[in-house]
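> call design_seq(struct)
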């Protein structure tokens, strides 16, 4: 993989900087289909045989570690062959499949996951979404840099398309920002391909799901944004996350019905057993009973 890293970056100085032990946090940014996830995988595998490497996956629409509508992190030690080999250590529910309209949950989740990853990993690599346009992409990426404080930012770009994001950091000591040209091998994916990828991820996640009853009287109710209405017409088909009493996400679910005078939820979930549920967080995204998206909150380019 060292040869593969050199072949991708094509700058030995950058590769040496990545290898330095004091450069623990590496963030990769770039537009959609720029090769970010490929580069993250190459970097992680290049160092995982000698140390534990954490990957923080902040692309809630094309996620590789957690389910769609969430950001997540996982740890690898040793050879890294496939994304499926990574166990999801923790996830944070953002409630959408795009950062648009959910910038605050995205940044909060990024910070919480990063703090947990650095506790057990010598090096952490951060994958990000492809949202780079004005103004949301600029604001999101710049505030992620501020709150996560990476040592290195690798900016994958076509024709200086990230100028508006990285210009504001050019006189700062850190992070060190390195521009990398998008490789010719980067493949563009259509909206249909992205939607199908999410469908397959949802199918896998909810494969062994069952319907459970939750009394509204025994849990707190929150929303990731948008309407705060919690009536049946607002909740049916919504993706939700169960939180424990330490405010950590346990499992996702889909509200199928609200019954008994709007006091009982019937929720389809793969959650095992009856974990202690303290709160239900309601997202914006919706799935039908075949796990197809009803509210396409990811149609805009990320």
């Amino acid at each position: 993989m060292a040869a593969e890293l050199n072949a991708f970056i094509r700058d030995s100085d950058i590769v040496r900087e990545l290898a330095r032990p004091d450069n623990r946090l590496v963030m990769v940014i770039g537009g959609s289909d720029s090769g970010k996830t490929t580069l993250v995988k190459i970097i992680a595998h290049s160092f995982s045989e000698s140390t534990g490497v954490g990957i923080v996956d902040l692309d809630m629409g094309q996620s590789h570690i957690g389910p769609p509508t969430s950001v997540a992190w996982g740890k690898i030690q040793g050879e890294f062959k496939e994304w499926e080999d990574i166990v999801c250590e923790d996830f944070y529910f953002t409630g959408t499949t795009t950062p648009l309209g959910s910038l605050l949950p995205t940044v909060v989740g990024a910070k919480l996951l990063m703090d947990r990853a650095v506790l057990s990993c010598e090096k952490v690599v951060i994958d990000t979404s492809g949202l780079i346009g004005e103004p949301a992409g600029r604001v999101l990426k710049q505030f992620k840099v501020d709150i996560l404080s990476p040592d290195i930012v690798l900016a994958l770009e076509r024709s200086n398309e990230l100028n508006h994001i990285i210009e504001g950091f050019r006189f700062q000591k850190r992070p060190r920002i390195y521009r990398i040209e998008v490789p010719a091998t980067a493949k563009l994916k259509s909206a249909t391909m992205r939607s199908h990828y999410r469908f397959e991820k949802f199918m896998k996640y909810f494969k062994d799901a069952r319907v459970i009853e939750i009394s509204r009287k025994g849990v707190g109710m929150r929303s990731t944004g948008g309407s705060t209405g919690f009536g049946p017409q607002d909740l049916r088909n919504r993706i939700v996350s169960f939180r424990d009493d330490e405010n950590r996400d346990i499992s996702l679910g889909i509200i199928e019905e609200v019954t008994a005078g709007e006091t009982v939820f019937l929720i389809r979930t793969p959650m095992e057993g009856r974990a202690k549920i303290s709160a239900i967080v309601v997202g914006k995204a919706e799935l039908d009973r075949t796990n197809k998206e009803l509210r396409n909150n990811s149609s805009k380019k990320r």
